[in-house]
Automatic annotation (TrEMBL), chain A:
The chain crosses the membrane at residues 6-22, 43-69, 75-100, 112-134, 154-173. This is YeeE/YedE family protein. It comes from Stappia taiwanensis. It holds the Pfam family Sulf_transp. InterPro entries: Sulf_transp_TsuA/YedE (IPR007272). Keywords: Membrane, Transmembrane, Transmembrane helix.
TrEMBL record, chain B:
GO terms for cellular component: plasma membrane. InterPro entries: Sulf_transp_TsuA/YedE. This is YeeE/YedE family protein. The chain crosses the membrane at residues 12-33, 69-89, 110-131, 143-168. It is found in: Cell inner membrane. It comes from Stappia taiwanensis. It comes from the Bacteria. Its main location: membrane. Keywords: Cell inner membrane, Cell membrane, Membrane, Transmembrane, Transmembrane helix, Transport. It is a multi-pass membrane protein. Belongs to the TsuA/YedE (TC 9.B.102) family.
Length: 206, 171
């Protein structure tokens, strides 16, 4: 595929991704950190809806048309330690690597510092990959999926998990925490004056 | 339902839209959605400005040339453009940094927030590169492929995030 086509395709797909991140307010620092404090469930809902959609899409692509999957390697050391560090970074940055770009586009100037820090972090990793890799080289199990561990085809297990997650979202989570209520909190957090005056969004009493 | 001028989409609609992007990713680029690799591509080019030997480091070289990393770099620039378009079309204005930070960490100046943001970004990508993926690659894509490693990565991400957020003031 030619480079120009890859770039145009990437830009178009990214633009759709960016619109969805801005419209759902998942790129708001208060929404992301709020998820980690169990005060706002927008991020978990978007994440699970994307996962469910991906499960169904890949069940069809892989099950009916034989499209190859690309699961990442299960290397316990890197995944566990890297995942923990990444989680700390999400809370400090108020962003994931993708949402940092959405924040910059939506107008947050501190997102440029997050992006610059991210590029610096990636450079640091590139220069130090040998010893970091060696230190965390425990527990490598290859590119395994849960479908490899269970006597079910990928498409079957994917559809079962999609159904379970969808039921959890709609029957449990949405009933406990309606999305519109979380969106109102996110909207209030956009207003500098109201937040600084303490009126924007009143946190529940401690 | 998918109007650009609306201020909000429900997280369900947004998630479905993002999940559907897996279809062109798998069919046209032969890869899954991801974002953090693009920071290595950018980092490799930045490093090669200062260090002529950077492009000889195998890890950097891979991210400077392969098709899927070119596509992914365009993808993240597209994310910024899409968010810009969405915010403009719906009149969602934003401060220099989210007022949520003042509530969470007490920062009131842009300078302090830039410093914490830089550190956060550094930690974010260091973790993502060690783990081999971020909330997109391991999260949305890995879970959708039932990958065992990605499920562990997502659990670890939530653990790290929850522990760190617990040290901040409640939002």
């Amino acid at each position: 595929m030619s480079t120009i086509w890859l770039v145009l395709l990437g830009l178009a797909m990214g633009a759709i991704f960016g619109v969805a991140l801005e419209k759902s307010r998942v790129m708001e620092p208060g929404v992301l950190v709020g998820q980690f404090q169990f005060r706002n469930f927008t991020m978990l809902k978007m994440f699970l809806a994307a996962t469910i959609t991906g499960l169904v899409a890949l069940a069809v692509l892989n099950g009916a048309f034989g499209v190859a999957l690309h699961p990442k390697t299960f290397a316990l050391g890197p995944v566990l330690i890297g995942g923990l560090i990444l989680g700390v970074g999400i809370a400090l940055a108020g962003a994931c690597p993708g949402t940092a770009l959405a924040q910059a586009g939506a107008g947050y100037r501190d997102a440029y510092a997050v992006i610059a820090g991210g590029i610096a972090g990636a450079i640091f990793y590139g220069y130090n990959i040998d010893w970091i890799g060696a230190a965390l080289s425990f527990g490598s199990y290859g590119k395994i999926t849960f479908a490899d561990l269970l006597p079910l085809p990928f498409w079957g297990l994917a559809l079962i998990l999609a159904a379970i997650l969808a039921a959890f979202l709609l029957v449990v989570l949405e009933r406990l925490v309606p999305w519109q209520a979380d969106m109102d909190k996110a909207e209030a957090l956009l207003d500098v004056d109201a937040v600084q005056a303490g009126h924007g969004y009143s946190a529940p009493a401690e | 339902m998918l109007s650009l001028s609306k201020r909000h989409w429900s997280p369900y609609v947004a998630g479905i839209v993002i999940g559907l992007l897996q279809i062109p990713a798998f069919l046209l680029v032969n890869t899954a959605l991801g974002a953090s690799s693009s920071f290595v591509t950018a980092g490799a080019w930045v490093a090669s400005l200062f260090d002529a030997g950077a492009a000889d480091i195998a890890y950097f070289a891979k991210y400077m040339s392969a098709d899927k990393y070119i596509w992914q770099s365009a993808l993240v620039i597209g994310i910024a453009l899409g968010a810009l378009l969405s915010a403009r079309a719906s009149g969602s204005r934003r401060a220099a940094f989210s007022p949520a930070w003042t509530r969470l960490t007490g920062v009131t100046s842009l300078g302090s927030r830039l410093a914490l943001g830089f550190v956060g970004g550094f930690v974010l990508l260091l973790g993502a590169r060690i783990a081999g993926g971020c909330t997109s690659g391991h999260g949305i894509s890995g879970m959708a492929q039932l990958a065992v490693g990605s499920t562990v990565a997502v659990a670890a991400m939530f653990a790290g995030g929850i522990l760190t957020a617990a040290l901040m003031k409640k939002i």
